[in-house]
Specification:
The structure holds two protein chains of two kinds.
Chain A: H1 2-32, E1 38-43, H2 49-60, E2 65-71, H3 73-83, E3 101-106, H4 112-123, E4 128-133, H5 135-177, H6 179-187, H7 192-228, H8 231-237, H9 247-271
Antiparallel strand pairs in A: 1-3, 1-4, 2-3
Helix pairs in contact in A: 1-5, 1-7, 1-9, 5-9, 7-9
Chain B: E1 4-15, E2 19-30, E3 34-38, H1 45-52, E4 60-65, E5 68-69, H2 78-81, E6 85-88, H3 100-109, H4 115-128, H5 144-156, E7 162-166, H6 174-189, E8 193-197, H7 201-206, E9 210-215, E10 218-225, E11 232-233
Parallel strand pairs in B: 3-8, 3-9, 6-7, 7-8
Antiparallel strand pairs in B: 1-2, 1-4, 4-5, 9-10, 10-11
Helix pairs in contact in B: 3-4, 3-5, 4-5, 5-6
Classes of the chains: A alpha+beta, B alpha/beta.
Amino acid sequence: MHLLSVSTITIALVILGFYLLCYRNFQLMAAKTNPNITGTVYLADNLSQDDVHAIQNRLMSESVVLHTNFKNKDMIVTELKTMISSTSSLFSTDASLFPEVLEIELSPNAATEQVTQLKEIIQGFKGVLEVDFSEAWMTQFKKLENFFTIVGMVLMIGVVLGCSFIIANFMSMRHHMRQNEVDVMRLFGAKQSFVMAPFLLEACIEGLLGGVFALAVLYGMKVILASAISASWTRVLGVQQWEYLNSLQIASVLAFGLLTALLSSFTVFLRLKNTGAR
Amino acid sequence: MANHIVRLHRVGKCYGKQRFALQDISFELKRGEFAYITGVNGSGKTTLLKLLFAMEKPSSGSIIVNDKEIKSIASRQLNRYRLEVGFVFQDFKLLADLTVAENIALPLEVRRMSTKEINHRVDGVLSLVRLANRGNDYPQTLSGGEQQRVAIARAIVAKPTLLLADEPTGNLDGRTSREIMSLFLEINEMGTTVLIATHDEILMREFPARVIELEHGLVISDQRVKSQGGDLSQ
């Protein structure tokens, strides 16, 4: 019976912990991939420096624009050469192929509608060929973030309810088996606290054990994930290595196990028939 | 201190609307008295003991034990009340996971007595019930008679002034029953008032004492068994 309770808590906490593990690594990935919305304004070839300054000033007058950076053809070619060093000879002579650009960084709080509106405004500027923003990626990113949050909440509620229900039933079975013991203690005048103490202590141990086992299983899962999704994927996602839960998350998993076990034990205890003390 | 340890006045117990377990029960027990409650199954013996042990509340009338009205004892004060009243169950109610000594110590532990005092008292009652060398054994390794003696030891370890026993010999053979009755008498001689619910007429004749007979929840006679011959007198 103890094994069943500990196993149930462990399973519930592994589900919750796995979510936390994914969420943590998702956050790390987000931090490394710079979540700010950036854009590129491709400029016409015949613009003077004053024209570029004028466009920069108009851009900076928009509330969502944080920063602009002008790059001429030579700078672009040099950057490309640095990025793709092995094939740099491809760009050695033909810098005129590339347009000059203004790189724009927007506020991370900028809404998609604001970005779309800004895009339309910039496209109306004289000397602007094309505007390209990362808003589509950001929208996806935010959707993913929202998805994680909703999944997390659903998981949390599901784990609390499901785990409490299952553990409560296990404990109920065990308590019914020990009804005689509880009755005898009550018949000899044991106070509620005296009778409850061993049950709550048992629940504490089960909850903590379940938490420790779950953390061990999660560590194993992290190691497997790290080896399975290594190399290419980690580079694509911008994550150097898969991280384990942080200390707050570890404490949360343990606390959650403890709380669930205590709560279910307490609930069952209140349901126990009070046959001894009228 | 009043001469009577137990006083029942027109006590009734009703389960549901029409099911009367006890009706209009009145009697008194003197301090140090030894008495039986007898009657056929369903006559109300166990219900009466449950009322005296404050396991249930009477539906009507008053029960005064040690000058305390049982109805007025709050649930949180029950442990103090049960320090004064011991109860021996027919099915012993021993906890299989605890040793004999631990079972006996239970009423003292729930009152958070010191370990030294608990050990002292447990050793004393183990000697009294002649189980001094069985303290570390588990109940399931004992015979029925020995288990009943453990139950008696647990009931008297808190030095109650009143000892209630519900069919204490119901599961025992004749010889063991006599040993148990002797033990009750010994406890009674030490000053404890003893009230035993039983329907074993042979034992009542062998160990004569006051007999309160119940039928359908009513007291139909209250008399003393005088001799082994079975002569009764009012």
